[in-house]
Amino acid sequence: MTNKYMYFIANWKMYGGLNSLNSLHKVINFLRKFKKNNFIKIVYCPPHTLIRPMSKKLKNSLINVGAQNCHENDNYGPFTGSVNAKMLKNVGAKFVIIGHSENRLRGENNKLINIKIKSALKVGLKVILCIGETSVEKRKKITKQILSKQIKLGLDKIKNKNKIIIAYEPVWSIGTGIIPKPEDLFNTINFIKKKFKNFKVLYGGSVNTKNINELKLIDNIDGFLIGGASQDSKKFIDIIKKTYI
Ligand code: PEP
Predict the structure, then answer these.
(1) Can you spell out the DSSP letters for 27-67?
(2) d(CA 37, ligand 1 centre) in Å
(3) Are 128 and 163 within 8 A, CB to CB?
(4) What is the CATH number of the domain that holds 86?
(5) pLDDT grade, residue 2 (50/70/90)?
(6) Closest Cα to atom 7 of ligand 1
(7) Which of 18, 21, 60, 193 has the fewest C-beta atoms under 10 angstroms from its C-beta?
């Protein structure tokens, strides 16, 4: 694990105002001094309202900014309340999370996710595609079918796959404090990597300063998508540090 290139994606969800940016200097300074910083990619995905000020704050740092979703339409248009990939790029986003389960639960399907991914890639954003099974699907033992379908349909007719990172986030693990058993997680990541070659695969779901000690030992994981714990700079730094101890 120690010499591996790792991603740490912070998903702030619908949390944070301008004052939430005040502690970012801690992460900037930590990363500058951290010996392993050549092997780390940190991406902050704040709410849309903070992308611009955060990009300014992180200018000349080793940290990138991303968005949490985008509208599927390439062009400007009458879509009240929506923001497309071009607009996100314009305010400093380099990445965008697409297919998060919180949005799938609100009706986003694989077909829509596929259009969103194409639209994001077109303007040069890198995509973090979230996939994951619900607890019911897990109980029915159809996790592999669900993940295969989400990836297959999500990436349908997409050529430049090297700009896409997959984040495996079991829905039952997000925000619950429950993480998969290490051997299950290893096997699921292995399944994804074998079936869909050459993807970086991250894990997301209740990663925190304690369970990172267990998660970091699963050596086919290429990084973490971190929700709750990423909103606290100290906890976020702690997670990164512990990954490398
Ligand atoms: C997420 O929402 O992507 C996530 C991983 O959340 P949490 O870490 O809070 O479970």
Answers:
(1) HHHHHHH-TTGGGEEEEEE--GGGHHHHHHHTTTSSEEEEE
(2) 23
(3) no
(4) 3.20.20.70
(5) low
(6) 227
(7) 60
